[in-house]
């Protein structure tokens, strides 16, 4: 059993906020850290976010979830998707952070490999972690990518999962920077790229940390 199970909400290129949170968290090998996806796009330094997550992998048990923005980036990098959809939803800012000059090889292979090994979901004895959403009566392994990565809570608010486990998601931002907590479901997307907060929560103790992209704690 990990000493802490820490979920981190949607980072969206806010590298300074992540840096400050990690300084406060001081994750170690006894912790399980679950970033909930959407590490890239919209914010100013997606490259810096992935750099930090790669370092974090060596410091703790990291189980990163794949968000819809990472799905788009992988699709473009592998040539399986046209870039227009990605660039419309924040890909331009991500490419700028890599100093894109027209050649996608400017993105380090280590970053592509990191995104490629991100998970659809994470399950512990007490919690289920998804990027976007789930269906209450469907096993996590049977959920499709549209539900896992694209369906917002505004589109469909699920009930308690049949497993009885508490679910933790991101993807649906609270424009006021507040955590949505209805008991059986918590949403940690607190709109950091929009000027609010990046949130981390220890699901075992309930402790919360929040920082903005100026590196200030709430």
How would you characterize this protein structure?
There is one protein chain. This protein is an alpha/beta fold and 218 residues long. It is 28% helix and 17% strand. The strands form 2 sheets. It has a 5-stranded mixed β-sheet, with helices on one face. A 5-stranded mixed β-sheet has the order 4-5-6-8-7, with no helix packed on it. The longest helix is centred in the middle third of the chain and has 15 residues. It is globular, with a radius of gyration of 16 Å.
Break the fold down into its secondary structure elements and pairings.
Layout: E1 4-8, H1 15-25, E2 31-35, H2 46-57, E3 61-62, H3 68-77, H4 83-97, H5 109-116, E4 121-123, E5 127-130, H6 145-150, E6 166-169, E7 180-181, E8 185-187, E9 198-202, E10 208-211
Parallel strand pairs: 1-2, 2-3, 5-6, 6-8
Antiparallel strand pairs: 1-9, 4-5, 7-8, 9-10
Count the DSSP helices: 6
General shape = globular
Given as residue ranges, the uncertain stretches (5+ residues, pLDDT < 50) are: none
Based on DSSP secondary structure assignment, what is the total number of beta strands? 10
- The pLDDT mean sits at 97
Distance between the termini: 29 Å
Radius of gyration from the alpha-carbon trace, in angstroms: 16 Å
Strand and helix order: EHEHEHHHEEHEEEEE
Proportion of beta-strand residues? 15-25%
Strand order of the largest sheet: 3-2-1-9-10
Question: What proportion of the residues is helical, as a percent range?
Answer: 25-40%
Q: Main β-sheet, in a few words?
A: 5 strands, mixed
- Structural class by sheet pairing and helices: alpha/beta
């Amino acid at each position: 059993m990990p000493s802490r199970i820490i979920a981190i909400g949607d980072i969206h290129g806010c590298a300074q906020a992540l840096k400050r949170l990690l300084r406060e968290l001081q994750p170690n090998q006894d912790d399980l850290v679950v970033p909930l996806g959407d590490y890239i796009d919209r914010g100013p330094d997606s490259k810096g976010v992935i750099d930090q997550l790669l370092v974090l992998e060596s410091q703790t048990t990291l189980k990163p979830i794949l968000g819809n923005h990472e799905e788009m980036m992988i699709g473009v990098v592998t040539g399986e998707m046209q870039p227009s959809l990605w660039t419309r939803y924040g890909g331009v800012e991500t490419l700028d952070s890599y100093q894109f000059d027209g050649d996608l090889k400017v993105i380090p292979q280590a970053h592509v490999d990191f995104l490629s090994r991100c998970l659809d979901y994470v399950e512990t004895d007490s919690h289920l972690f998804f990027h976007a959403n789930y269906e209450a009566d469907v096993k996590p392994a049977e959920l499709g990518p549209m539900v896992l990565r694209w369906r917002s809570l505004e589109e469909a608010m699920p009930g308690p999962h049949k497993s009885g486990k508490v679910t933790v998601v991101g993807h649906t931002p609270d424009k006021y920077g507040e955590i949505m907590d209805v008991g059986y479901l918590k949403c940690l997307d607190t709109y950091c790229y929009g000027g609010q907060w990046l949130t981390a929560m220890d699901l075992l103790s309930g402790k919360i940390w929040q920082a903005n992209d100026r590196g200030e704690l709430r």
